[in-house]
Amino acid sequence: MAEPNKEPAAVTVRDIAKRLGVSASTVSRALSQPDKVSNARRLEIQRLADSLGYRPNLAARGLTTGQTKNIGVVVPDLDNPVFASLVKGAQARGRSWGYSVFVSDSEEDPRLETEFLRSFENRVDGIVLFSPRMSSEMIQEHAERLPTVLVNREVEAIPSLGVDDREAMRQAILHLRSLGHRLVGHISGPVGSWADRSRAEGLRLAIEETPDVQLAEFGRVAPAFSGGVAAADWVLDSGVTAVICYNDLVALGVLHRLTDRGVPVPERLSIIGFDGITAGSYVTPSLTTLAVPSQRMGRDAVDLLLAQLESPRATSPMHLPANLIVRESTGVASGLDRDRSRPLTHTLSR
After folding, report:
1. Residues 292 and 152 sit within 8 Å (Cβ to Cβ)
2. What average pLDDT does this structure show over 272-301?
3. pLDDT digits (tens, 9 = 90+) for 181-210
4. Residue 321 CB: number of other CB atoms within 10 A?
5. Which of 42, 160, 171, 311 has a C-alpha 20 to 30 A away from that of 147?
6. Could you write out the DSSP letters of every residue in 224-241?
7. Residue 161: in which H helix or E strand, if any?
8. At residue 261, does pLDDT exceed 70?
């Protein structure tokens, strides 16, 4: 007869492996080095581990900063729903591993990022930086003092994960091309945004693969609703029949301004956002977007950080897919002005 006060035996890696009919080493890799196994296998193992209440042996991790069981997270703007979703994923995964997650909002200011990182020293075991604005040199300097993982940013020798921007933009251009659009605009994000540069590069590569589509660049705006409002009149005056925006907030700003002006969407202008925030499905017309798996990114970032704490090693950047969600804001190209003699470059300041 079992002792009434005796705690049940802790679930081990071998228990999970036996249930799934795989090796213990495969389970270990899926839980500590998720990039080393297939997505399907990783999800299968993680779900079973969660359902069985598996917890890693934290004492065996050999954490170099005193085993605080805390993780620091820095985001550029919690007003942006995509960052709130990333944080939610990170917090959920941190809890599942027995970690507390401290969150700081840098307000798009690299100086605040630096301040937060310094304040986290000796208080956390590692850091996850979402879309940091600071220079690569500063990131490397901080990473030498504290284990660091980057999301939507790539810096040499620092583990990172992000979105496959090239494939995302290819989906957007092919979608617009299939609707008859041949002059497409692009509204860029803030200065210093690595994600903006990556998306712009992916867009240019997509345009190169579709030579019958031309690109009009509209410069940089604040990555917020107000940025889209500011850019909308320029976009409309340019003669493009579709525009791809830095993020969904900018796209919603464009949509709002066009609605105020009585301009029909998508009959006159098609609009595509980026991120897949929930608000995009609530507006009229609903927003076509390139949706990123933000909560998964937050979870995977924590997994990657804990893997680094357990066994530091160089890893290649991980890229997750962004999926095109077609809604009401994109439609067949209008027969309005497509004068190719118009200038294809405009500049907007933040």
Report:
1. no
2. 97
3. 999 999 999 988 999 999 999 999 999 999
4. 14
5. 42
6. SHHHHHHHHHHHHHHT-S
7. strand 160-163
8. yes
pLDDT confidence bin for 40, thresholds 50/70/90: confident
Whole-number Å distance between alpha carbons of 72 and 65: 13
Other Cβ atoms less than 10 A from the Cβ of 43: the count is: 14
Backbone angles phi, psi at 128, to 5 degrees: -115, 125
Q: Within the chain, where are the H helices? A: 13-20, 24-32, 39-52, 81-96, 110-120, 136-143, 165-178, 194-209, 225-238, 248-260, 294-310
Q: Rounded to two decimals, what is the model's pTM?
A: 0.77
Block residue for tokens 């690569």: 136
Burial string for 11-30 (b: 16+ CB within 10 Å, else e) reads bebebbbeeeebeeebbbbb
What does residue 294 show for φ and ψ, rounded to 5 degrees? -65, -45
The widest CA-to-CA distance across the chain, in whole angstroms, is 88
* Residues in the chain, total: 350
Give the CA distances from residue 310 to residues 60, 92, 127, 147, in Å, rounded to whole numbers and listed in that order.
8, 20, 14, 11
What is the sign of the dihedral through the CA atoms of 139, 143, 145 and 148?
Answer: positive
- Enter the tokens of residue 349: 């300041």
SS3 state of residue 219: strand
Please give the Cα distance from 300 to 124 (Å, whole number). Answer: 18
Rounded-to-integer distance, Cα 143 and Cα 158, Å: 8
Per-residue pLDDT reduced to its tens digit, 75-92 = 999 999 999 999 999 999
Separation of first and last alpha carbons in the chain: 72
* C-alpha–C-alpha distance, residues 81 and 9, integer Å: 40
- Which residues are within 8 A (CB) of 69 and not within 5 positions of it... i.e. 6 or more apart? 58, 98, 99, 100, 125
Tracing tokens 């620091």 back to the chain, one arrives at 72
Within 8 A by CB and 6+ apart from 192, the residues are 110, 133
**What CA–CA distance (Å, rounded) separates 167 from 175?**
12
Residue 57: per-residue pLDDT: 55
Angstrom distance (rounded) from CA 65 to CA 8? 31
